[in-house]
Design a protein that fits this description.
The complex is a heterodimer of chains A (about 325) and B (about 260).
Chain A: E1 6-15, E2 18-28, E3 33-37, H1 44-51, E4 59-64, E5 67-68, H2 73-79, E6 80-83, H3 95-105, H4 110-123, H5 139-150, E7 157-161, H6 169-184, E8 188-193, H7 196-202, E9 205-210, E10 213-218, H8 220-227, E11 230-236, H9 242-253, E12 258-259, E13 265-270, H10 275-285, E14 290-296, H11 300-308
Parallel strand pairs in A: 3-8, 3-9, 6-7, 7-8
Antiparallel strand pairs in A: 1-2, 1-4, 4-5, 9-10, 11-13, 11-14, 12-13
Helix pairs in contact in A: 3-4, 5-6, 8-11, 9-10
Chain B: H1 6-26, H2 28-54, H3 57-76, H4 78-88, H5 92-98, H6 105-132, H7 140-167, H8 171-187, H9 200-208, H10 210-223, H11 228-258
The chains are: A alpha/beta (about 325), B mainly alpha (about 260).
């Protein structure tokens, strides 16, 4: 076998006339975090549902640690945990009862089930809420409980379908920290997201999905470097010095800079990262004082629009 | 660990059945509903219509209590469908499906967990009836037989409820469909009045309706009279309902399990 934790090969899924997946390939090495990034309707959820045995593909298949999700769903289910887009919990039970129920379904003894539930309640910051009905939980609490439920029997592969959708910024950061912690324990994580920042923050690798296909895959930095170039942005303390500064920038980078929104700024695409010190030195020699000089990679947002060419598909 | 055995499947089903009891404990409203509704029906019919129907409410209580027992327990079966529908229409079903548990477990759990309700309802109706003045005219054994007959029928009818529960896409539609099935079935029978008093078309329906046979059988078992005939008809009807609706439910359920 390939030794991959997750491997999807040519997944195809149609719903009536619409094609949700049009030959999707994905792979994740054990212990890594793979983010599947795409706008609504790009097939993220369909892909997760197939890989977690909830849905049968029309073509292709997926393997979890070498087990075919179509033929050996039982074995796959032993190894995975899933949190769907909607928290997979019983709103009419307390948080603690939810955990014990799932632990019992995983055939832990009554005592072990209660002990595990107890540990996880602490670890996921739900001590005070544990005795309350899940119906009364906030979105962030539900998500945390959902994740806790996934960890009752630590999975080898964890699927998180849009884990932070609908959370406020604080809840989102708290959840990110939890996911990072789980990934640190050696769990292979596949998460889908519409948030480029989330993928950037959590993933070792990002696969960008558009219309049921992967349009780009790579580490966050590789992906950014591959698609967009770097940009040098220069802001001047004295707008009058712009013309002189522009000449220097052109001389250093070989490109005539564009103006930045009527401000005392200059923007230029720059291939090499070492232009910044050279620029600073030459500006200094000419007696021009920059108020700001940045060399930055394009944001994932820019990457995404470059790849899908669809600014309307914005998350 | 990875092969599904009947023993494991049974454990999963029982674990999910226990969940129904937790629900009951957490929603006193539901429990109250279960207890108060049959009491309300009994009080309403006995005191409001009793005098008119049977000249004396005490006489009518004797007649109607077995019927109310049948109706209350059959109506209690809607909970199984509601439970299954709630699971299917919320995220928790995805959890069940992604766990290495028997595919049957959520269905078995809903049906099994519900049987506790039937027993509870049976007890409540009988106890309240006795409190109002109902008197059993037969033997304790006959009472046990009457309860058993009602429970068997409920176990059969709950498959109609689960089928609706699996098929209904929204809770609103579920409520409507359940009412559409349960009301003609329980009211259009000899539960409240002897079928002889009904107008032609309703009488035809009420006499065909196996719920009448069930009510007649329970009445005979509690008050005396020929019980064997109606009891047999009720049992056969229960068997038929089960034979038709259980496979239909399982088929519809498995289809939803896959998607």
């Amino acid at each position: 076998m390939s030794g991959l934790a997750i491997e999807a090969v040519g997944l195809v899924k149609r719903f009536g006339a619409t094609t949700a997946l049009a030959g999707l390939d994905l792979s994740a090495r054990p212990g890594t975090t793979l983010a599947v990034l795409g706008p609504n309707g790009s097939g993220k959820t369909t892909a997760v549902r197939i890989m977690s045995t909830l849905l049968l593909p029309d073509g292709g298949t997926a393997y979890i640690h070498g087990h075919d999700v179509r033929r050996r769903a039982g074995q796959v289910r032993e190894m995975i945990s899933l949190t769907g887009q909607y928290a997979s919990l019983d709103p009419r039970l307390t948080g603690f009862e939810n955990l014990v129920l799932i632990a019992r379904l995983r055939e832990l003894s009554r005592r072990t089930a209660r002990r595990r539930a107890d540990d996880l309640v602490d670890r996921f910051g739900l001590r005070e809420a544990a005795g309350r009905l899940v119906r009364t939980y906030s979105g962030g609490m539900r998500r945390r409980l959902d994740l806790a439920a996934c960890m009752l029997v630590p999975p080898r592969v964890l699927f998180l379908d849009e884990p932070t959708t609908g959370l406020d910024p604080r809840g989102r950061i708290a959840l990110w920290e939890l996911v990072q912690e789980l990934a640190g324990d050696g769990v292979t994580v596949l998460l889908t997201t519409q948030y480029l920042e989330e993928a950037d923050r959590l993933a070792d690798e990002i696969a960008i999905l558009d219309r049921g296909r992967v349009v780009a895959v790579g580490g966050p930095d590789t992906l950014k470097a591959k698609i967009g170039g770097r940009t040098v942005r220069l802001r001047l303390a004295d707008p009058a010095a712009r013309e002189a500064a522009a000449r220097i920038v052109a001389a250093v980078t070989g490109v005539t800079p564009g103006r930045d929104a009527g401000q005392a700024g200059l923007v230029v695409p720059a291939a090499a990262p070492h232009v910044a010190p050279e620029l600073l030195r030459r500006l200094d020699e000419a007696g021009i004082v920059p108020s700001e000089l940045t060399v930055r990679l394009p944001s994932l947002e820019e990457v995404f629009f470059t790849l899908t060419g669809d600014p309307e598909g914005r998350p | 660990m990875t092969t599904m055995t009947p023993g494991r499947a049974a454990r999963h089903g029982v674990t999910l059945a226990a969940r129904c009891l937790l629900h009951l404990r957490h929603s006193p409203g539901q429990l109250l509903d279960m207890v108060v509704q049959p009491m309300l029906f009994l009080v309403l019919f006995v005191f409001l219509f009793g005098g008119a129907v049977a000249t004396d409410w005490r006489l009518y209580l004797q007649f109607v209590l077995p019927g109310v027992l049948v109706q209350a327990v059959l109506l209690a079966t809607v909970a199984a469908g509601a439970m299954l529908n709630a699971d299917l229409t919320t995220g928790i079903f995805d959890r069940f499906r992604s766990l290495p548990i028997a595919r049957s477990a959520p269905l078995v759990g809903a049906v099994l967990g519900d049987s506790v309700r039937y027993v509870l309802t049976t007890g409540v109706v009988l106890a309240f009836g006795v409190l109002l003045g109902f008197r059993v005219r037969t033997s304790p054994l006959a009472v046990v037989a009457a309860c058993a007959l009602v429970l068997v029928a409920a176990f059969a009818v709950c498959w109609i409820s689960t089928l609706i529960g699996v098929l209904a896409r929204t809770p609103q539609r579920l409520q409507m469909l359940l009412a559409l099935v349960m009301f003609p079935l329980t009211f259009g029978s000899s539960v409240y009045v002897p079928t002889g008093t009904l107008p032609g078309w309703l009488r035809v329906w009420a006499e065909l309706n196996p719920v009448s046979a069930l009510a007649d059988a329970v009445r005979a078992l509690l008050l005396g009279g020929p019980a064997a005939g109606p009891a047999l008809r009720a049992l056969v009807a229960s068997g038929l309902v089960f034979a038709v609706f259980a496979p239909l439910t399982v088929a519809a359920y498995l289809r939803r399990m896959r998607h």
